[in-house]
Specification:
Layout (H helix, E strand, L loop, with lengths): L2 H34 L19 H8 L3 H32 L5 H10 L9 H11 L5 H5 L6 H11 L4 H9 L4 H12 L1 H17 L2 H6 L8 H11 L4 H33 L4
Helix pairs in contact: 1-13, 2-13, 3-7, 3-10, 3-12, 8-9, 10-13, 12-13
């Protein structure tokens, strides 16, 4: 067998393996979408594609079961938390990357060390603080406790260190203040990592179930994960409705990743590697 033939066979084997892996990964999503447009009671019929597809399942979960309200709550919580967490991480990343102050590196190392603590360890003290402040059943309880993002600080610092300091010095010589340097130079040059951090934070808060369940017990404040979990326990046999609710829960994440995937991949490869 010639070397060219061996190379061709190796490529074919790789493509076959990747295709099989893609089918295994994507099939649950495919089944979820197909089941969501089937008629009630036909979730497990032998036909893969529905004979009479319908969107009534989406209409019912949005209007009859309150998913429209859950969706709005999730948008408010995830968007607000992602925006402010990204802003705070960018400001802190700029300070740790380009400013010199007392014990800068030691403070940064201390903050990084806090990543070793499991996130569940913070649940009880955060709940005690929220309860003492009287923030239970409010948007503040769902948003504010997670605005400090050490991982985001790490990403922003690593990326901003790659931006030449000469650009900042030139701006200061031209009379730019610190806020102008940050907003007109650092932010535009950090768009990929900002988009990446926003997407990661948005995804975390969109899928966050435990904390939103702990700090809210009013149905009008439920987010999509909480509403979907309670809906699933109440309608265990209504798989078509459950799959319609699941489609609604993954739609924003898929849409954001589809439109921002270029920035996401660029930010992950540059911000996490360089430093």
């Amino acid at each position: 067998m010639t070397p060219q033939a061996k190379t061709r066979i190796r490529k074919i084997a790789v493509y076959v393996g990747l295709t099989a892996a893609a089918v295994v990964v994507l099939f649950p999503f495919f089944w979820m979408i197909v089941t969501s447009i089937k008629q009630p009671g036909q979730a497990f019929t032998p036909n893969i594609f529905p004979e009479n597809p319908t969107l009534d399942n989406f209409q019912r979960v949005l209007s009859e079961f309150g998913f429209a309200r859950y969706f709005v709550n999730s948008v408010i919580v995830a968007t607000s938390a992602a925006l402010f967490a990204t802003l705070f991480a960018a400001l802190a990343g700029y300070a740790f990357a380009k400013k010199h102050f007392f014990l800068r590196d030691k403070i940064f190392a201390f903050l990084l060390a806090s990543l070793m603590i499991p996130g569940l360890m913070y649940v009880v003290p955060q709940f005690a603080v929220i309860n003492q402040l009287g923030w239970m059943n409010t948007y503040r309880a769902m948003i504010i406790p997670h605005l400090a993002n050490v991982f985001g600080l790490f990403l922003m610092r690593q990326y901003m260190q790659t931006i030449p300091s000469e650009l900042l010095e030139a701006a200061r010589i031209d009379g730019a203040g610190e806020w102008q340097v940050f907003s007109t130079i650092m932010v535009p040059l950090s768009i990929p990592i900002l988009a990446t951090l926003f997407l990661l934070t948005f995804q975390f808060h969109w899928n966050n179930f435990l904390w939103q369940l702990i700090v809210t017990n009013l149905e009008r404040l439920y987010t999509v994960p909480v509403g979907l979990a309670l809906f699933r326990s109440q309608h265990e046999q209504s798989y078509t409705l459950i799959m319609a609710g699941s489609c609604i829960s993954v739609l924003p994440i898929a849409a954001i990743f589809f439109f921002a995937q270029r920035y996401f991949i660029e930010g992950m490869t540059m911000g996490a590697v360089k430093g």
